[in-house]
Design brief:
This protein is of the alpha/beta class. The chain is about 30% helix and about 20% strand. Strand 3 (about 55), helix 3 and strand 4 form a beta-alpha-beta unit. Part of a sulfur-relay system required for 2-thiolation of 5-methylaminomethyl-2-thiouridine (mnm(5)s(2)U) at tRNA wobble positions.
């Protein structure tokens, strides 16, 4: 399943997101959701132990000046990879 996190982890039901994640799922952080890719946050620490593969959309990281600050455990992707993730995961959940 592909989960897309577009809201800040501080402005959504992040605990519900964590409960829904299953090992092997993909999580794409975009818009304000890229804040969850910062390694100093509790959100990232929870995501890191969830067993999901983490992605962040480059344009949103760049727009927020966060490219150099995110964890190296997060794959930075472009729109082409975003589309590939949606094709790979027919089931999706937006947060």
């Amino acid at each position: 399943m592909l989960h897309t996190l577009r809201h800040s982890p501080f402005q959504c039901d992040f605990s519900a997101l964590l409960r829904m994640l299953m090992p092997g799922d993909d999580l794409l952080m975009l818009q304000d959701g890229v804040i969850a890719a910062l390694p100093s946050t509790m959100a990232f620490q929870a995501l890191q132990t969830s067993g999901v593969t983490l992605f962040a959309l480059r344009v949103d990281l760049e727009a927020r000046g966060l490219v150099a600050q995110i964890s190296n455990k997060v794959s930075v992707v472009d729109y082409n990879k975003f589309v590939a993730l949606t094709v790979k995961n027919p089931h999706q959940m937006a947060w």
